[in-house]
Amino acid sequence: MDFRILGPLVVSGIPDAPPLRQAKPRAVLAMLVLNANEPVSVERLATAVWGDDAPPGAARTVHVYISRLRKALGDPDRIVRTPAGYRLTVAPGELDLERFESAMAEGRRMLADGQPREASARLTQALAAWRGPPLPEIQGAVRTEVARLEEQRLATFEARAEAELELGDHADVITALTGLRAEHPTRERVAALLMLALYRSGRQVEALEVYQDVRRSLVEDAGLEPGPALQQLQRDVLAQAESLESEPPPQPALVGREAELERLRTHWKAARSGHGRVIALAGPAGIGKTRLAAELAHEVRVAGDVVADLYRPVTRPTLVVLDDAGSWRVPEDIGRLPLLVIACTRDGMIAGAAETVELGPLGAEAVQAIATDVPADWLLTTSGGNPRRVHEQARLWVQREAGRRTAAAAERTAAGRAGLRAAEAELTGSLVELDAASGRAPPDEAETLCPYKGLAAFDVEDAPYFFGRERLVAELVTRLVGTSLLGVVGPSGSGKSSVVRAGLLPALARGVLPGSASWVQAIIRPGEHPLRAFDRAATSRRMLLAVDQFEETFTVCSDEGEREAFVAALLRGPHIVVLAIRADCYGSCGTYPQLASQLAAHHVLVSPMRRDEYHRAVEAPAARAGLTVDPGLTDALVADVEREPGALPLLSTALLELWQRRDGRRLRLATYEDTGGVRGAVARHAEESFARLDPPHQAQARSVLLRLAAEGADGGSERRRVPLEEFEDAGTVNALAVERLLTVSEGHVELAHEALLREWPRLRSWLEDDAEGRRLHRRIAEAAREWSAGGREPSDLYRGARLAAALEWRATHEDRLRLVEREFLDDSRAPR
User: Fold this and answer.
1) pLDDT digits over 177-204, tens only?
2) Is the Cβ–Cβ distance between 452 and 620 less than 8 Å?
3) Which of 194, 300, 303, 429 shows its CA 20 to 30 Å from the CA of 321?
4) How far apart are CA 623 and CA 629, in angstroms?
5) Which stretches does DSSP call E strand in 675-818?
6) pTM for this one?
7) Helix and strand totals (H; E) in the chain
8) pLDDT, tens only, 597-627
9) Contact at 8 Å (CB) between 428 and 474?
């Protein structure tokens, strides 16, 4: 068993169970895992579930949740009750937090032992355990217990940044810490590491700006000055202290300020002799005041003198740099101290200053020296000689040049891509020609099989009758070349399943690609347990795995751990994977970065058929079956469906109806017109099929069909796949399947197509009348399954209002209940 709390709670290694999907039991389990092997009081568990608004009887409800969790975990001894509360036993190695903390501690030891490369790798491994904000399930005041996890994560980020600084990876550290500092603007350790990375990258002024920013945030938010360590780092950056360097700093040379620097040196010599003074450095923002002062500070530090602040007693020759002097006043006794104060100011108004050194714009020679690769005249004109503007404009010029190079590279890439697309188009065209030249088997005059599928999808064995999608099949084959994963994306009713099952797979089996005839082929549906479906299909040989209805990974499977494992298994190879995905679920794939990356590069959108393709879809299967199509019939069919959403099931159903009403071997236009055309074809087919059922099956059909409909995320209805074993009346299921209203495969039953939910008035009416009843029945079914799987514990039975509502519904829906559901309600009603 594996517990993961560094993100939403995930428990893997056990069968999925309702308590692991339901929010409140998950909150209880999350709190227990957070405090693994320690007792947690019922009061704290209740707070985790309801926050500060726990209802009356919350303690009793917590006990019920504990009972359910014990059964879900499959080991009653996992959660034990102690005088101090409930305790969850977690063995060594079963908790991701334990693995994270172990890797973090080991990484820090490596860092302390002078192994930065190994430390960085180990700390990166520790951070990889995080999947998002920890335990969003937990509510209320006990969220403070989760805060310590975030603190550990931040501390690990900082330790890794320290290791990477020692390795000289300054650019990566700057990128990572800039984002982190935006989230934590008053966190001094993050600011210190960022300052150090900037300084070592030759960006001394930016490092000092970080200090000013964090100081401003601290003063505004808490009324505090930065701590001594950060203040000392600021002084060291000013002085370019050797202690900051892992190697000599790549600082750019100071240019264009030689005369001003010499004047400052003169003042420093006088101050060092005991004739202290204040010098004002004046000029607009960006003119280079801080950079000039930093140059002198570095010389002072190298000579062994002190770079400090005014709050420290002056006993040795000392230089103080005030980045923003403002209205600062000169100390009265400064003339008797070995102290030089350089006060940076924009307006030059420092009372008592021995001299004001005005910094003006740089000349052309200095500007050229700063950026040798940039045209000097342009740079001087656009910057006005302001050093900061010089750097900014130089970066802008470099960016523009890089942009031009990028544009040129993009043009070359586009040309290459156009060549690739042309090659793909040529391959697609060749495949279409190959398919046309291959032909299909000649018609069997004795055949009476229907070449149309109605609401059902075409399958592999239906390939001889699958027409109209030859170009799409060829495109799929083309896009499959050179990739291990291909997505087939389209809306409901676009024919995704049919084109994969009856188009792509048979084409590959015929050897349309070199070696594809020898590939093992398998088709799976994810369902509630996609990993099980994958394991049943997996083989050691090269395999093409088609995952039909891939959206069930998100809409049916409720175990996030199993979803992650299923996606990982698909991407692991060595198989070729084709995913048929409903378009409205495509965005859900973005949760998994590697899957999203591959799908973005390798997918085909299933677009509506063209008119000529519709014609082939109508006429070619008829010819294959030896049928004749009346002139004008195809045009009438296509005109009625080509702009309809979900057109293919409508067309196929209308064709099935025409086949059923055929005149010998002729499909007649008059018959189509007499029946009212394609509009209502689904409803007519469903209604006529329902009418053909005998009375007992009609009586049971409502129960079966309602059981196969579920509420969608938008409040509408969608198909639901149900195990065949849940239907006690197999005869009704079989009768509906014969009428092509249901499909039965791999031990599961479902509606033949979602179009039935939209187009069949009888079913829509049933669904509207029974919306609340279906929700109630689904809750009864889930409770009954949990009760049965958990050994039929009395604590899992219904009581009170839930039991009353269930019994009231049962009085008029007895035929809808399975045996285990009836037994569940019977035991719930029995006296205890």
Assistant:
1) 888 888 888 889 999 999 998 888 888 8
2) no
3) 194
4) 8
5) 709-711, 717-719, 722-723, 742-745, 748-751
6) 0.49
7) 34, 21
8) 899 889 999 888 899 999 999 999 998 888 9
9) yes
